[in-house]
């Protein structure tokens, strides 16, 4: 059996420590500002902090772009030539054309050498599945078996985010001006959830931001009897004013501290949701029959 490379894209938000520890290859997506017309690579030539500064400077949010077919062919070719099989999982097919581009690129190589899995998710919702892939690889599974096992886990991933402000969603054309205005005056901080391969506003609690954070923790506790406690992510987009530490301390009451991973979102999540966005992400175990 060939050696195996686990590959993901920059939207998995795993952080350098976990990427290095589990020998994961990351390929970047694209970020650009219409007024600047420079093609940046997420996490390579631009950071989330750069995104916020440029958004302020240009009074516009960035456009994010998929990794294209030719780039994937360039990513895959040297690894295949070196004798590796590849298993790739990145941003969900309902959120980007990246997945479809990877599938098309994989057809340029011998059958069975590359497996592409649709995460149907984003951020560390992908990252959870990437770590499962690395675990299965280290247990000696082949790419086909890994893909089959991870596809079974895809529907069990829970990805929810509290969003502080809607101006990024509004500037990016993802919410109406009226929705933004109403949310501002009613002090609404939405809780968004990945449902059916899309990021959807799930609940709209009114009041201070902490109320939305507590709502997310409440939903986590409802899932606690069924979730995989070996790995839980707290992922935020920065500028959290201590809310990230509050969430982590609350989770430590129920999850072993070494199993809670705190990561910072890359440019894609930051571009869509803006600063002071935080999520609790985990894999739910099916209730016993």
Question: How would you summarize this macromolecular structure in one to three sentences?
Answer:
By secondary structure, the chain is of the alpha/beta class. The chain has 11 helices and 13 strands.
Helix count, per DSSP?
11
Described by the principal axes of the CA atoms, the overall outline is: globular
Strand order of the largest sheet: 10-9-8-13-11-12
Give the tally of β-strands.
Answer: 13
CA gyration radius, whole angstroms: 19 Å
- Residue share in helices? 25-40%
- Strand % is 15-25%
Structural class: alpha/beta
Measured between the Cα atoms of the first and last residue, the distance is: 36 Å
Largest sheet: 6 strands, mixed
Ranges where pLDDT stays below 50 over 5 or more residues in a row are 172-186
């Amino acid at each position: 059996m060939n050696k195996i490379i686990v590959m993901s894209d920059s939207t998995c938000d795993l952080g350098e420590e976990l990427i290095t520890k589990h020998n994961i290859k990351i390929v970047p997506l694209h970020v650009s500002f219409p007024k600047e017309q420079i093609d940046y690579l997420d996490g390579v030539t631009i950071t989330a902090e750069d995104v916020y500064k440029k958004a302020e400077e240009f009074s516009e949010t960035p456009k994010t772009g998929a990794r294209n077919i030719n780039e994937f062919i360039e990513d895959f070719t040297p690894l295949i030539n070196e004798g590796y099989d590849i298993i790739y999982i990145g941003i969900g097919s309902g959120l980007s054309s990246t997945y479809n581009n990877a599938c098309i690129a994989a057809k340029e190589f011998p059958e069975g050498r590359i497996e592409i899995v649709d995460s149907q998710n984003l951020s560390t919702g992908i990252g959870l599945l990437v770590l499962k892939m690395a675990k299965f690889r280290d247990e000696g599974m082949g790419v086909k078996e890994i893909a089959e096992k991870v596809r079974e886990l895809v529907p069990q991933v829970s990805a929810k985010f509290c969003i502080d402000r809607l101006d990024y969603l509004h500037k990016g054309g993802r919410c109406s001006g009226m929705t933004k205005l109403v949310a501002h005056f009613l002090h609404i901080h939405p809780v968004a959830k990945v449902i059916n391969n899309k990021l959807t506003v799930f609940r709209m609690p009114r009041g201070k931001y902490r109320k939305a954070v507590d709502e997310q923790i409440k939903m986590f506790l409802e899932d606690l009897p069924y979730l995989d406690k070996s790995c839980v992510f707290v992922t935020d987009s920065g500028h959290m004013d201590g809310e990230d530490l509050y969430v982590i301390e609350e989770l430590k009451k129920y999850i072993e501290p070494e199993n809670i991973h705190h990561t910072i979102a890359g440019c894609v999540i930051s571009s869509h949701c803006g600063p002071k966005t935080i999520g609790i992400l985990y894999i739910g175990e099916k209730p016993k029959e």
